[in-house]
Specification:
Layout lengths: L7 E6 L4 H13 L7 E5 L2 H10 L5 E4 L5 H8 L2 E6 L4 H14 L3 E4 L4 H17 L4 E2 L7 H12 L7 E9 L5 H15 L22 E3 L4 E5 L4 H11 L1 H4 L3 E9 L2 H17 L3 H10 L8 H6 L2 E9 L2 E9 L2 H15 L1
The protein binds NADP nicotinamide-adenine-dinucleotide phosphate.
The site of NADP nicotinamide-adenine-dinucleotide phosphate has 35 residues, from helix 1, helix 4, helix 7 and helix 13.
């Protein structure tokens, strides 16, 4: 990765956020083994100094604020690759990607916002391609497990046959204030019909995969359709790489619940929030309740786990890929994001 014209291989922007600090800790333990020159960046000097002080590598700090384009350019101009952990990305991300593509800096993030992925593609893809740069969204629990599990699953099926892939996620994890703020913003945008996403053409032979709530016999549990970014990413991977996935593939993703009561406990709060989120007083109430910078404690994260079950079918043949890990949204995301940047 190293390039002598840039001072750093990686700048971690948003390092002082809840997830950003966990990513910084992962870099602290692992970047040196990969001979990576890295530093941390953000808008708050005191927080950055205190974080750097806590870390073994005592990384340099860069002050940069998304409201100050010149500070972003000074940051991206010094690095080969930027890891962006400052979200909601719909609010803070656009200027950061723009600065990266203008300053020859690869860009990675952990967004789960379909509309942000859409804007990255429509606004910056051409210039990034011209400057031979990568913009890689969704390098966290959104969407690496889904994308990777699907890729592994389709390799076990005949390439030329139409395939149906269903992916099931089980987890007991909880969320950070930043993630919930992002989700509230996404629900609000959706309620205003303002949620563009990359539409992937459906092949005429692709099998139909039901996207509704159902009891699934393969996993012996209830399956709730997940309106997340993963299906867009998985379908796009398949569409762009037909040599690996075949032409006709359909995909559905579901959250697993063991009883109907748990289904209700999961979907009712989301349904109510989706209705009320169009009102400013309700959004303000939620934003006060789920504060940025906060998140599950280390003990709670150590108790969290996830399992991904991916089932692929082609012409009566059924194959399965299963993998599991610890706390998906934070501990595992810090690992997935950092390892993506190391590549
Ligand atoms: N895909 C996944 O699996 C996954 C997992 C975890 C998180 N995420 C996403 O990652 C994002 C961050 O989550 P989080 O829980 O870490 O949120 P957070 O704790 O609120 O952190 C937000 C970060 O953004 C920074 N920031 C805010 N405004 C800024 C500005 N004007 N200029 C520069 N930096 C600014 C904050 O800086 P200060 O510290 O100075 O306030 C902080 O570092 C969210 O969008 C979340 O959805 C995704």
């Amino acid at each position: 990765m190293q390039n002598s014209t840039k001072k750093y291989d990686i700048v971690l922007f948003g390092a002082t956020g809840f997830t950003g600090q966990l990513i910084a800790e992962y870099l602290d333990k692992n970047a040196d083994k990969e001979h990576i020159r890295w530093c941390i960046a953000g808008r708050n000097e005191d927080k950055l100094k205190s974080l750097s002080h806590k870390l073994h590598a005592k990384p340099d700090i860069i002050l940069a604020d998304v409201t100050d384009t010149s500070s972003l350019d000074a940051m991206t101009g010094q690095s080969l690759c930027l890891m962006n952990a400052a979200g909601p990305y719909d609010w803070y991300g656009g200027k950061v990607v723009e600065s990266c593509v203008h300053n020859h800096c690869h860009y990675l993030d952990i967004t789960g916002e379909p509309s942000f992925v859409y804007h990255c593609f429509t606004d910056f893809h051409d210039l990034a391609e011209k400057n031979q740069l990568c913009i890689v969204n969704c390098c966290g629990f959104d969407s690496i497990p889904a994308d990777y599990a699907t890729w592994l699953t389709v390799q076990k099926l005949p390439k030329d046959l139409p395939k149906a892939v269903r992916l099931f996620i089980r987890t007991n994890a909880t969320f950070s204030g930043g993630t919930l703020t992002t989700a509230i913003n996404a629900l609000h945008q959706q309620s205003r019909g303002n949620m563009p996403y990359l539409k992937i053409p459906r092949h005429k032979d692709a099998p139909k995969v039901s996207k509704s709530l159902h009891f699934n016999k393969d996993i012996d549990a209830w399956a709730i359709p997940m309106p997340v970014v993963d299906p867009h990413i998985v379908k796009r991977s398949a569409w762009r790489m037909p040599d690996y996935y075949g032409q006709a593939i359909s995909y559905g993703q579901f959250f697993v619940r063991s009883s109907f009561l748990k289904v209700l406990k999961t979907i009712l709060p989301i349904a109510i929030a989706s209705l009320l989120v169009r009102f400013g007083w309700f959004r303000n109430y939620l934003l006060r309740k789920f504060r940025p910078g906060q998140g599950p404690s280390e003990k709670r994260r150590n108790e969290s786990k996830f399992e991904v079950i991916c089932i692929g079918e082609a012409d009566g043949q059924k194959v399965k890929t299963v993998f599991s890990g610890g706390d998906p949204g934070y501990n595992e995301t810090a690992k997935m994001f950092s390892e993506s940047a190391f590549v």
